[in-house]
Design a protein that fits this description.
The structure is a homotetramer.
Chain A: E1 8-13, H1 29-44, H2 49-54, E2 57-68, E3 77-87, E4 90-99, E5 104-116, E6 119-120, H3 124-129
Antiparallel strand pairs in A: 1-3, 2-5, 3-4, 4-5, 5-6
Chain lengths: ~130, ~130, ~130, ~130
C-alpha cells in the first residue's frame, strides 16, 4: 500500500460495536467509514458540510460500487485512502481501505452529486475547494 | 412497479433515526435495508443465518453496486424487492427499492459469497434452499 | 406480559445487523427500538415529527434509565410497550420490551423535553395530542 | 472539566453520519461513544474483548443511566471521561462527556456484569486488570 498514490489518507480503527454476529465489520459500516473519510478530506479542503447544508447545498451519494476484499475484524486498524476526479456535474471518489499490514479491505468508487434546493448543480463550490475546476 | 417481476417483496418503512442531517435516509442504511430483505427472503426459504453461522457457514457480501435514484425521507414507506441468480460460486441479488407510489429509490446488485471456515465454498446449502441447483 | 397495562404496544423483530459480536442485540440499538416506538405512538396520536421539526419544535431525550433484563438474540420477535406521564415541562415514557414468550427484555424510563428554537417549552403541542393537559 | 478527576480520558469527534434529522447526535449514538470509551480503557488495561469472548466471558451492560445535558452537533470534538468502581459482582462505569470548551454533554452511569457461559460471574478477570480486587 503506497500512500503517495492517494490525495488523502486517514488512519482509523474498528470500533467493537461495528462488528456483527459473524465477527466482522458489517458491510454497511464501510459506507460510514468512506463517508467519514470524504468529509474529513473536505474539511481539510476547507469545506464545511454543515455550512453547505445551511446554504442549501447538499452533496449526496448518487452511486456506490464496493468490492469487499478482506473483512475487518475486532481490534484492527486500517488506512482509508482517497482520490477524486470530476466527471461532468459529478465527483468520483476512488476510495480504498487497507489494513495496517497492507492487506486490501475494500475498493470503492463513490459518485457524489451536488443537490441545491432539490436540483442537480455543477458543484462549483466543491470543485473550487478541490482544485478541480 | 410490478411486484410480479420479483421473487420476493418486503414492505418496510423508514425509521426516524435512520434520517441524517440532510433530512434523508443516510446512504449506509440502504445496505441495512437490503441485508434485512435478503435475510427475510432466506428465512422464508427455510434458511436460518444463526444456524448457518453455528455450522461454520457465513454468507458474506463480496460486492455491492448501488444506484441511488431518489432519497427516502421521514415517514415514508417503501417496498424492497429481490431477485436472485447463481453465478459460479456466488449469488447475485438484484434488489430494487420503490416508494409506495412507485418512485424508484435504489437499484442494487449485491454479490454474496459463502465462506466456510474461512474458505470460499460453492454455497450448495443456499443453492438448494433457493432452488438454484 | 399484559398489554392492557400499556397505552401503546408495537410488535417488532430483531434485524440481523443489530446483533453484535456477542451474538446479542447491541445495547445502543435498544434506544433505537424505544425511539421508534415513541415515534409510532406519536404518529398514531397525530403528531408528525417532521412537521414539528419544520415548525421549530424538537422533542429531545433529556434522560434515559435502562435496565437490561434479558438480551434479544438473532431472529427473535418482541413487543415494545409504552406508557406516558407528564411531569412539569417534561414527558416521562415508561417503556418495557418483552420477548413474545413474555420474558422481560428491557425496562426503561425515557424523559423527553420539548425544545423550541433552543429553549425548553412546556410541550403543549405534545400534551394536547396525548390528552395530558 | 478537570481530566485529573478521571481514570481514563479519550478525545473523540462527532462523525457526520451520527447526526440525525434534528441536527444533533442521535441519543443512541452516545451509547456507542460510551462503549467505545470503555473498550479503549479495557484495551489499555490489557483486556481484549475478542479474547474474552473466545474464552466464553462476555461483559454486558446491565443498566444504563444517561443524563443528556447538551447535544453534540456536526463537526464538534469532545472528551469522553471514565471512572470505575466495583460493586459486588458488577462494575460501575461513571462516564462523562464534555465538549472541548468544557460544556458538559452527558453524564452516565453504566453498570456492567460479566457473563460466563450464560451465568453471572464475579468478573475476577476484569477486576484484576482494573486493580479493583
Amino acid at each position: 500500500m503506497d500512500s503517495s498514490l492517494y490525495r488523502f489518507v486517514l488512519p482509523m480503527e474498528v470500533r467493537d460495536y461495528e462488528i456483527d454476529y459473524q465477527g466482522i465489520v458489517n458491510n454497511a459500516n464501510y459506507l460510514h467509514y468512506l463517508e467519514h473519510t470524504r468529509h474529513e478530506f473536505c474539511k481539510e479542503a476547507g469545506i464545511s458540510f454543515s455550512k453547505l447544508h445551511i446554504d442549501g447545498i447538499d452533496p449526496v451519494v448518487a452511486r456506490a460500487e464496493l468490492e469487499y476484499l478482506s473483512p475487518l475484524k475486532m481490534g484492527e486498524s486500517f488506512i482509508s485512502c482517497l482520490n477524486i476526479e470530476r466527471k461532468g456535474p459529478k465527483f468520483l471518489f476512488f476510495q480504498d481501505i487497507y489494513k495496517t499490514d497492507g492487506t486490501p479491505v475494500i475498493k470503492a468508487i463513490i459518485t457524489v452529486a451536488c443537490i441545491e434546493k432539490g436540483r442537480l448543480t455543477r458543484g462549483e463550490v466543491l470543485a473550487t475547494a478541490f482544485n478541480l475546476t
